[in-house]
Task: structure prediction
Amino acid sequence: MSGETGDLGSDRLGRRGDDFYALLMAAHDGLSFEDSAALNARLVLLLANQVGDVGILKQVLERAAERLGKQA
Result:
């Protein structure tokens, strides 16, 4: 999935985003805070592996950190 990153943050899921959100919330249902955080960490690592491009992953981290006022 390497290549252009100009569309970073664009909505590629469209209406399916709501379906994914529902699946994500269902996966967290009933978990403790610690287990929920562990699930998120595993999910991030699996998705990062799927992307497979460290340059894109770096940009994603930077974009996510921007909203928190933190440098990645």
Remarks:
- Residues 35 and 62 are 25 Å apart (CA to CA).
- The helical segments are 16-28, 33-51, 54-66.
